[in-house]
Each structure stands twice: as C-alpha cells, then as structure tokens.
Amino acid sequence: MKKIAIITGASTGLGREFVKLILEKKEIEEIWAIARHQDKLDKLRRQLGNRIRTFSIDLSNRARIEEFGVMLSESDVEVRYLINNAGYAKFCSYHDLNVADSLNMIDLNIGGVVAMGLVCIPHMPSGSHIVNIASQAAFQPLPYQNLYSSTKAFVRNYTRALNVELEDCGITATAVCPGWIKTHLYERANIGAAKATKRFCGMTTPDKVAKKAMADADRGKDISIYSLYVNFCHIGAKLLPQQLMMKLWLQQQHIDPHSNTK
Ligand SMILES: NC(=O)c1ccc[n+]([C@@H]2O[C@H](COP(=O)([O-])OP(=O)(O)OC[C@H]3O[C@@H](n4cnc5c(N)ncnc54)[C@H](OP(=O)(O)O)[C@@H]3O)[C@@H](O)[C@H]2O)c1
Questions:
Q1: Ligand 1 within 6 A of CB of 222
Q2: What's the pLDDT tens digit per position in 186-221?
Q3: Domain 2-252 is of which CATH architecture?
Q4: CB-based contacts of 262, cutoff 8 Å, min separation 6
C-alpha cells in the first residue's frame, strides 16, 4: 500500500509549508494536495515536484468530500497524515454577512474538518496523525470575528476529544492554534467593514508555525501553540473572565461596539 499524506488548503500559506515539511519525510510516497483552484495547485506541483498529486475540491461541499471518500476507498493507499488546513476568516460584524456566506464558513471550517476526518480515519493505520488547524481565535469569543472564532473553538475542542477517542487505534489528533500568520488569509477576510480587525499583534511566518505543528503532531501532542505571545494569550484566556478578555480584545483593536459606525 502506498503511504500518503493528505493536505487541504495546500496551495498557499500554511498549507504550502506543510507540503514542504512532508516532502522531507521520505517514507511518505505521495502527497495529495487539495484546494479549489487548479491553477494554484499546478503551480505548487511545478515548484515542489511530482510526489504531489492535486485535487481541485471545494471542501465546503459535502457531496464533493463524499466523492473523494469513494475514490480514496478504491485506491491502494494508507493515509499517514491528514492535515485539515483549509479555512478562512471574515473580519466584520454578524450583519455584514448573509446567511449563505455565514453558513459557508461553518461548512468549510467545521464541516470540512469533520467530514475529511471521518472519510480518512478508516484508511489510517496505527502511528498515523491528524493535524487540524484551529487558531488563537479559539481561546475566547471574539466580537467582530464572531463566526470565525467560534468555528475555531469547535476545531480545538473537537480535535482534543478526538485524540482521546483515537488512542486505542494508535492515531493522534493535534489542534494547531496559531496567532497571526503572514499568508493570503487577509485578502478574503478584509471586506471593508468599519468594525473590523485591523491590528495584528505578534505576526509570524507560516514556516515556523508548520514546523512546530509537525514536531508536536509527531510527538502525539493534542495541542500545538507557537510563540511566547500566543502561549501568554492562551494562559490569559484560561485565567481571566471571558468578559474581560473580550474587552481587552476590543481595546486592542480600537473597536467601540457602541459607536454608530456600521
Ligand atoms: N493567517 C493567519 O493569520 C491564521 C491564523 C490562525 C489560523 N489560520 C488558519 O490557517 C489555515 C490556513 O490559512 P492560511 O492563513 O494559510 O490562508 P491562505 O493563504 O488563504 O490559504 C488557504 C488555503 O485554503 C484553500 N481553500 C480555501 N477555501 C477552500 C475551500 N472551500 N475548499 C478547499 N480549499 C479551500 C485555499 O486555496 P483555494 O482558494 O484555491 O481554494 C488555500 O490553499 C486556515 O484554517 C486558517 O483559518 C490562519
């Protein structure tokens, strides 16, 4: 059986860094890279080599994930790594997004992670790893990133509980909780809303986050946090009341929820 790694959102940002790190693992014979845009996947393959097989799939579409699952079952492969990285944010208020856009974020950030796990776990032998990308936004409720932070809180809790459930199969699940990373996320997140995230404290690069996440996954840790700053925020969110954490967040972002700016 061919040993493969599946990486979602592999074409840019953090996902691309995971591709590079998995390529260093000689025992992994093929990387299955998933994203929506085939041109970006083709570029990834041209730049990083032919151990990469590409799949253009919109992971917010459950039917497409089910099709992928059938194809996986018909292939002679075992999944050594599943890296559920595809996800996006919108920096705005609840009323800036319509019902379809709001639910699409849940479909990708939550539905995609759960469905890809369910489809892949039957093909994962003992010693395999699931890496689910949550966020520092998972630590506390974030006004004006309300939906995004809630999806990431789901991913964090789901992954840590899944890690316990998978113990008997010898599979580990790691929730990665990065702070701000220099990627393309901001192009989709910034929709010009007046009350929006505009200050990005402790910004880092995706290679550092991916390296720490892979090391933590290989060690079987259920959570991966990169940088002193994000660790500090993690501890703060555990010790301080959530009301206070939300106030501090709004102050940091210079957002007054009571101002009339729409
Ligand atoms: N950047 C940050 O500050 C930050 C912080 C914490 C956590 N994260 C998390 O890190 C993960 C990676 O994001 P990134 O920062 O690397 O952003 P990015 O550069 O925008 O990368 C997103 C990747 O996901 C793919 N994607 C987007 N929508 C998709 C869909 N519906 N189906 C399949 N693939 C899809 C994109 O390709 P296509 O557009 O071609 O589909 C791209 O490959 C996300 O889960 C994000 O929430 C990011």
A1: no
A2: 999 999 999 999 999 999 999 999 999 999 999 999
A3: 3-Layer(aba) Sandwich (3.40)
A4: 194
